[in-house]
Amino acid sequence: MISEKIINLGCITCLLIFSLVAHYMDEPYFVTLATRITIFAMAAIGLNLVLGFGNLISLGHAAFFGFGGYISGILATHAFNSEPIFEWPLIFSGSSNLIVIWVLTALLCSALALVIGFFCLRTTGVYFIMITLAFAQMIYYFAISWPSYGGEDGLSIFIRSSLFNINTMNGMNFFLICFFWLGLSLYLTSRIIQSPFGLALRASRYNLDRVKSVGITPFRIQLLAFVISGVITGIAGSLYADLNRFVSPSSLSWQMSGELIVFIIIGGVGYIYGPLIGAIFFVTFEQIFGSYSEHWQVFLGLLIILTILFARGGLIGFLSRSRDYE
Amino acid sequence: MNEILVIEDLSKSFGAVMASDKVNFSLKRGEIHALIGPNGAGKSTLIKQIIGEIRQDSGSILLDGLEVSNQNVPTRIRLGLARTFQITNVISDFSVFQNLLLALIGIEKKEFTFFSKAVSNKLLVEKVNKILDETELSEKKDEVAVRLSHGERRQLEIGLALALSPKVILLDEPMAGLSVDIIEKMKKSFMKIKAKVPVLLIEHDMDVVFAIADRISVLVNGTIVATGAARDIRMNREVKKAYLGID
Ligand SMILES: Nc1ncnc2c1ncn2[C@@H]1O[C@H](COP(=O)(O)OP(=O)(O)OP(=O)(O)O)[C@@H](O)[C@H]1O
Ligand SMILES: [Mg+2]
Q1: Which CATH fold would you assign to the domain B1-80+167-247?
Q2: Chain B contact present for A1, CB below 8 A
Q3: pLDDT, tens digit, for every residue of B178-194?
Q4: Within an 8 Å CB–CB cutoff, is residue A312 touching chain B?
Q5: Using a CB-CB distance cutoff of 8 angstroms, which residues of chain A are in contact with residue B146?
Q6: Which residues pair with residue A92 across a beta bridge?
Q7: Could you identify which of A59, A279, B4, B166 might form a hypothetical disulfide with B82, taking C-beta atoms 3.0 to 4.6 angstroms apart as the criterion?
Q8: First vs last Cα of chain B: how many Å apart?
Q9: Nearest one of B60, B58, B57, B82 to B69, comparing CA atoms
């Protein structure tokens, strides 16, 4: 058995080395591929905080992923055509400064998560799954029917937004920015789940009565976790829009939510690095089998079934059989 | 004021079943007050109302002079109530240590601390170790709760209640299903607990009740039919008839 730490370290190092090699071999396609993995992993890390550690199965996290993307896209569009987003009560113009974009994404996504969480967390189990899905679908259809930002066709970002003096149009630079965010979200998650807050969140997963009977209100714990989770996924969505220089309603779709869950299941539910390993595996799998057959998802489905039947802890659980965070 | 917990005219019905019918009851400082009664008498329902899991239909609950019957469970816990569950209820995938740590996080209001490791909070860990000592669970500290024996899980339940440093402790059949020698141990530990915090004890084993209770109340069909010192209750004819089954 390999220790969980080695698997984690191995995966993140491989990702970095892979993109560096691709960069020096002048293969921008593979740099972009590594960036996609990084961003997907980060989005799923956000979801894993509530799904893996709080047992809150949200089938609506695409709402945050897509919302983050649209915030990025809308700000960049307005910065590009110099029209303010709104003029009353004060003039609010677009921005192509990534810091501004990230701060706004974090603020708006936490507001959205607060609202969605406030309603959804009054339910549990299957109802929670359905109501998170319903919220996400509402936003999805709203995006489709709102013509000023591209509606069904999506919204193009003409110039990738900038960060200090870094040339973000350089694929490797942009990869490193995303890689930084990945590292940060992994670090934050590992700190959070070992903290008193994390212990309370993990306790709320199955046993609300016990949590209440030590004086803790599970709803508040879960709501806050939901907000942190929404922010992480939202910033990943913002990066994804910048990567593609395009954002469309498909990033808000339930398929997107489902993919995030698939990353977590393949990698290992409740493991900090589970989403990263799941995303690496998923994208690689898609690359290899996608080129043989357009029905590659059939094999993916088979794999998911096998994981659920025989390796409940996903790849990490299968390889390590231990949990470092305990 | 000698009475720490006072219940006045508490009523609760489930459809046609009167689980509590104008219950009046008090718990004094320094006592073990046993609540006995046949199955379905309404003992657990009374504890659930005191702790706030079930809202009463009418009546009031005073903790240390403060009306608590409109508060939710976590608030009442922080005001000084603690309970154990009739069916043991601990976080089963947490270790004994983590379970107790959770209780201390709760009562010390540390649940919104994000960045420090829970296990490196010296103050909390020190208190957990003290409770581990008191409940004789030190050796099982790192055992995951599902792997504990029934008796150990009962001890952990009591440890979780003690960890809250409560003003009142409510125990719902803490000895159910335990072997004779463990019951002897538990009896001793209750005498120790009583020195620090008054206990409301629901218990079916009459030998235990008569051995350790200072006062006894008898609940039948949601009504308290008798309250008094242990030796008086033993002699009470109505109790014998209604509950002990002796004429
Ligand atoms: N949630 C509920 N809904 C409906 N009826 C209930 C509910 N909880 C308890 N009851 C009923 O109320 C009565 C009192 O139940 P309670 O559990 O308080 O009894 P008890 O004295 O604790 O019994 P035991 O000794 O078996 O634990 C019983 O008739 C029970 O069926
Ligand atoms: Mg009962």
Answers
A1: Rossmann fold (3.40.50)
A2: no
A3: 888 889 888 888 988 98
A4: no
A5: none
A6: A86
A7: B166
A8: 39
A9: B60
